[in-house]
Amino acid sequence: MNYIKADPQGNITAIVTDPADKEDRIRIAAEIMKTDGTVEQVAFETETKNGADISIEMAGGEFCGNAALSAAALHLMRTGAEKGVCSVSVSGTGRNVEVYAEKIEGTAAHSYRGRVSMPLPEKISPFDFKTDRGILTLNVVDFGGISHAVTDNASDKEFAVRNIAGMCRQYGADAFGLMLFDRRSCTLEPLVYVPALGTVFWERTCASGTAAIGASCAPADLKIKEPGGVLGISSGKDFLVLENSVVLYP
Q1: Which residues contact 53 (CB under 8 A, 6 or more apart)?
Q2: Would you list the DSSP string of 197-216?
């Protein structure tokens, strides 16, 4: 399968450009990630729908803001445009995502920065999780296609890895993240589990997890330091805007 590799500050995404039947996507994604160990997630380009400029579906059916930004950059690269607003249809959300992207001059040939109008969460509410240390109550930011539990315990990574799959099953999420967020230093360690693929990744950057923090702190205007770089998130009552950059390797 032919794919384009996108690097939104470390959250390496393979965008498969060849047609792929839905029932084959998990197998194809697993093969790509096995062959290229740097790839954290796989998106599949599909026929455009709902008036979008470009349409993608994640292998696990989840929503991903970094993949939306990567798809918008791919659309600009194909059209030769230096900048513009791109409407992206993404799995895990019922509406198109609007992405503004522009080419970054003086850097790699296909480097872009952009702003993604992220979907607002369906709900934000506390949830009691049964863990190997007893009941843990965390706020869950539910985007429908992916849900994130935000915790201030930013150091206990072993606990997160042991418990994330069970927490996902208890909540009943299509994909689930544990966002280990240190409010004092505004640093984030994002762990994401996708049941359909059976993958657990400490992501270099996580767009939807960053948006979850922005939504839970709204109104906010934050620069969040993640292992792969700094992501911006601005939030209010009726908006959630993510800022990130991406490099394409066609």
Answers
A1: 72, 75, 86, 87, 88
A2: TTEEEE-S--HHHHHHHHHH
Contact, 196 vs 61, CB < 8 A? Answer: yes
Torsion, CA 69, CA 74, CA 77, CA 83, rounded to 10: -20
Q: How far apart are CA 103 and CA 47, in angstroms?
A: 25
Give the separation between CA 78 and CA 54, rounded to whole angstroms.
11
CB contact set of 50 (below 8 Å; sequence gap of 6+) = 89, 95, 96
**Alpha-carbon span 25 to 42, nearest angstrom:** 9
User: Structure tokens of 107?
Assistant: 């850097």
- Per residue in 5-28, pLDDT tens? 999 999 999 999 999 999 999 999
Q: Is the pLDDT of residue 153 over 70?
A: no
Helix (H, G, I), strand (E, B) or coil at 172: coil
